Amino acid sequence: MDQVFDKLAEIVGKEYVSNRSEELFIYSRDMGTMPPHKPDYIVLPASTSEVQKVILLANQEKIPVVPMGGGLVLSALTVPLKGGIVLDMKRMHHILEVNAQNRYAIVEAGTPQGRLQAHLQKKYPHLKHSIPDAPPMATIAGNILIHGSGHLSQATGFHSEMLNGLEVVLPTGEICRIGSCSTSPYWFSRAPLPDLAGLFIGWFGTTGVITKLAIKLYPRPALKDVLVFVTEEADIIPDILLKIVDTEMAEDLVVVASEYPSWTRDLQLTMINITANSDAEMNFKQGIIRECLHSYAKDKSGGFIDMPLMMKGVLLETPMRTVTRFADAREGGGFEYVGAIMPVGLFPQAYQAGVEIAARHELPYSMVIRVIGRCHSLMFAYGYPFNRGDSDDVEKARQALHDSNLASLEIGAIPWKTEEPGQQLIIKQMDPETLALMNRVRSLLDPNGIMNPGNWEEK
Ligand SMILES: Cc1cc2nc3c(=O)[nH]c(=O)nc-3n(C[C@H](O)[C@H](O)[C@H](O)COP(=O)(O)OP(=O)(O)OC[C@H]3O[C@@H](n4cnc5c(N)ncnc54)[C@H](O)[C@@H]3O)c2cc1C
């Protein structure tokens, strides 16, 4: 053990490797409901070459490696289920290039969302990237690798679709470039080459360590505003979303339903974010959106509500701080949500299932959905804040998450970024030939099984 520690210290410097019990304790858990597992070492590399050396050592000694960005995925995907090294990427936080003309940014894999957001606001105020509602220290890489989504996803899809290319250290130590950057000095696209990015996205760090990546940038209009449409009829939500999307006037489309505050009980609030470059454009867009839902207002199955300015400010924040506040609603630092990715038509069933599960476990229900693509799918999340100091509370949330995963699969949705027990449910339902292909790909890339073991493994 000590020899490994010394070799790791030689690679990254002794301040950046630890096996001290208090640090192992912190890295052994996240905010979610999964039980802790202690790593043996925490390692913070500063460059691709240091990542490569750590991986070569781990591969030689057959030590598990768990890559970690912000550690905010909530479903224990950065908790080392089989011990070994947690490879914390936070020192690799540099923005390497913003190519304004070709609309992409190249960043190191530990770059937090908030850092790129601030950099663009300061130096390239006409550009922005799509931001999830996770706290700003969540990394761009961690989010893309789990098929995350954010405030531009309605127009442009999952964040994984905004990835132009990446640099990755394979579990056997080779450094590969994927996308146009494998062949050109420009990181502008994954087309027209065979798309090898799929070997790394959605795999929860089980196939390699991403060290750099390029993402697409988008124009930042000068003005933004939000309209809120309220209904208590879950059945009409898919049609409402389709009608709004078809106008092509909205930037972001989110629906929330929550038992608290009490005035929102039984209501679904559709938040329609709109951007524009002039008041005239904003008024025009708002008019079109109001018009497209006119029939619902007319038959009184829903209507727009006027939001006070202060409230609008809260809804227009990117990321929305209220989401993070909700995560600690019970106090005691516990929060996990089950996201499920589903077709838009499944909303009414998913909503009903969520309300019933919350009632069964005596938890307040709280749901949020985000439209991905032009209603091509939904990210549907059931959130459960709990008090980590109260074991009954933790168990209730764990059961509710499990039931939500089961309910998602039953209706035809797929649990998103799910913890290990949820992965087992997916594996059980997956086409066996597809699962066999996944296993073959993984053992080809990682013959010694060192990368985030315990995840995406059939039990
Ligand atoms: C309050 C709150 C709100 C949220 N809202 C959203 C939201 O709106 N949209 C959304 O998409 N998500 C959301 N999330 C979920 C999650 O926090 C984000 O998706 C976040 O971006 C994950 O990034 P991270 O850096 O924390 O990843 P981590 O948790 O560090 O890692 C996620 C996964 O990626 C792997 N990984 C990380 N870095 C690398 C690397 N360099 N190489 C290989 N594998 C790697 C890890 O092993 C792990 O499997 C939210 C979370 C919270 C707490």
Explain this structure:
This protein has 459 residues and is α+β, with helices and mostly antiparallel strands. The chain has four domains: 3-89, Uridine Diphospho-n-acetylenolpyruvylglucosamine Reductase, domain 2 (2-Layer Sandwich); 91-219, Uridine Diphospho-n-acetylenolpyruvylglucosamine Reductase, domain 3; 223-318, 2-Layer Sandwich (Alpha-Beta Plaits), CATH 3.30.70; 323-418, GMP Synthetase, Chain A, domain 3, CATH 3.30.300. The chain has helices at residues 2-12, 21-27, 48-61, 113-123, 140-145, 153-156, 237-247, 279-292, 294-298, 309-315, 321-327, 347-360, 391-411, 420-429, 432-445; strands at residues 17-18, 41-43, 65-68, 85-88, 95-99, 104-108, 127-128, 163-169, 175-179, 209-216, 218-219, 223-231, 252-258, 268-276, 302-305, 333-342, 366-372, 377-387, 414-416. Strands 15-12-14-13-17-18-16-19 form an eight-stranded antiparallel β-sheet. The chain has a five-stranded antiparallel β-sheet with strand order 5-6-10-8-9. A four-stranded mixed β-sheet has the order 1-2-4-3, with helices on both faces. Helix 1 (2-12) packs antiparallel against helix 3 and helix 13 packs parallel to helix 14. The longest helix has 21 residues, at 391-411. The two termini are 29 Å apart. Residues 66-74, 77-78, 89, 109, 132-135, 138-139, 141-143, 145-146, 148-150, 204-205, 209-210, 323-324, 327, 452 line the site of flavin-adenine dinucleotide.
